[in-house]
Design brief:
mainly alpha, about 100 residues
Length: about 100
């Protein structure tokens, strides 16, 4: 039995309208959190949405993923810089892990 993972335009609008009804369940592993951050940063970099609004949303999501509110701004800046440099996942994880060294 195949599962349909697509959502309709009406479902999409409903999710956006009631986004607080969909909790973020952050990955337990730090590496998995970094992988999710990598995916999100790549998506943000690829589209043409207003970058200021997008960065605010990404920052909120990063906090939801378990990154500290104290340094999430630095993490997001570094994440976007790494994505612009077109690093792969391993380079991204290494870059975030060693950003204070």
């Amino acid at each position: 039995m195949a599962i349909n993972l697509e959502i309709s335009p009406d479902e999409y609008k409903s999710i956006l309208k009631h986004y607080k009804s969909y909790p973020i369940n952050p990955p337990i592993s730090y590496n998995y959190r970094l992988e999710r951050l990598y995916d999100l940063a790549r998506m943000a970099h690829a589209d043409e949405i207003n970058k200021d609004d997008e960065m605010r949303l990404l920052t909120k999501i990063a906090v939801g993923l378990g990154f500290s509110t104290v340094n999430v701004g630095y993490i997001m800046d570094k994440a976007m810089r790494l994505i612009r440099e077109e690093v792969d996942l391993d380079g991204f994880i290494d870059g975030i892990r060693t950003m204070n060294h």
